[in-house]
Amino acid sequence: FLEAFESLLRFAENRTSSLFETAYRPMAKEAAEPVKELFTDISLYILGAETTVESAVLRFFDSLFPLVYSRLINPGITDLSEDYTECLRLTRQDINPFGHYSKNMVTELSKSLWASRMLSQALSLGIEVINSTEHAALSKECSRALVKMQYCPHCQGLTLIRPCVGYCLNVMRGCLASVAELDAQWREFISTLEYLTNEMAASHELETALAGIWSSVNEAILHAQLNGPQLSATVDKVCGQPKQQEGNLSSASIVPVKEVTGTQTFVMAHTSLSNRRREFISYMKRSRTFYASIAERLCDGDLVMRDSSTCWNGEDVV
């Protein structure tokens, strides 16, 4: 699952980077770092870090605005000082240069990434539970019962006689009583996983949200360019007028962008995660009764004597 997540994130990041390289070349080099930070924040969020999708997206647009303003809206700016850049960053939310697109991006990503984050945390919890119960400590009473069941027939020279099924079940259930108490919680855990995987396949689909980031960013930049004169007038009042080249270059031409990369890679990543989801939840549903049926699983096969009239009941051969 984590590999599939990472594959989708890298694909979405490359897709967004190629948008700048293809359509907004004057700011492509400087936009690389904000793009990288955005997808790093998304990855950390999915893995359970104490952050929010909203803070990650808004921080991205805060970093993007000075670049859009100085490279696309007013390409004649020659001196973009740290103070002026910081002023643009701080006033971005008040000026709202990207319209509703930044908020829409927060909304869309929050829904899909929430389900992915919960699933990631649920998987980590499941691993923790399995690892902690893999080496269950045996009590003295359990150890004695196991020795009696397995080896006491040997003292009578009965090395080929195996325990009776009912006897084995009684011993194993006694030994695994504390583990079997996890049954109700484990069933609930499996149901939660099923719910989360269904959510991810429905309205909270991670693949669609990540693949749409480049489009949201493109629409946001186009919106800012179209409102360039009004933005410039507002920025001049708030941050002052920066130094300009003589003649003041005209704003970069607005070029609508179609799909910036082929969809084949995305389809492969999408199919990979979708298939993993289906296979995973199908497998997990089969383990719904795992902790309740450990004794039955252990008392199966070669450990016990089945379909025979001769077996060891703890006291004698019956």
UniProtKB/TrEMBL annotation:
Topology of this chain in the membrane: Lipid-anchor; GPI-anchor
Organism of derivation: Hypocryptadius cinnamomeus
Record lineage: Eukaryota, Metazoa, Chordata, Craniata, Vertebrata
PANTHER family: GLYPICAN, GLYPICAN-5
Protein name, entry field: GPC5 protein
Domain of life: Eukaryota
Gene it is expressed from: Gpc5
Keywords: Cell membrane, Glycoprotein, GPI-anchor, Heparan sulfate, Lipoprotein, Membrane, Proteoglycan, Signal
Pfam families linked: Glypican
Role noted for this protein: Cell surface proteoglycan.
Cross-referenced InterPro entries: Glypican, Glypican_CS
Protein family according to the UniProt entry: Belongs to the glypican family.
Single biological process term from Gene Ontology: regulation of protein localization to membrane
Signal is among the record's keywords: yes
Presence of keyword Kinase: no
Localization: Cell membrane
Cellular component GO terms held in the UniProt record: cell surface; extracellular region; plasma membrane; side of membrane
